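Supplementary Methods, section 5.1.

A reviewer requested that the exact input to the structure prediction be made available. We therefore reproduce it here, unchanged from the version used in the analyses.
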Amino acid sequence: MITDVINAMRSLIAQNFPNIPIYISNQGEGFQRPSFFISYVNSSTQNLSKLVFNNTVAIQIVYFAPLDDYKNVDSANQWQTWDTLKEIFNVGFFNVTNTGSSTLCNVAKIINITGAPKNAEIYLNVNLQITEQRTDFDNDMSSNTQLMENIILNLQEGN
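The structure derived from this sequence is encoded token-by-token as follows.
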């Protein structure tokens, strides 16, 4: 699910910044500017019922602004990118397609966004909530039904 969320966010950013690289793994010193880096921060799960649960996920997006020949940040580019990122993620939600399924899709609700430009980067923290349904419930029900049938059969046979 985390990979699906990151890929959905990467797609949203790429639609608005088509010629800027978007990294999802640490590049060390070999990255280029301008570029984005998307990383998973943490998550938690809350059961709502036997069938439904909420995932709360924190993702950080870092924008590495272009530098001039003297290693000074292009402030105009940085502020414009900050505004665009806020517009992208202030819509309140986005779709997350589940890997391995072309039909299953979840909606990621954007709980809040925080951050700001700092030095030559922009740090944007996006907190999401994704409500999901358990897919293995039918198998659990089948196992439970089989167990109950065996218990009833054993009781009827006097075992």
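The beta strands are 22-23, 35-47, 52-64, 93-97, 105-118, 121-133. These observations are discussed further in the main text.
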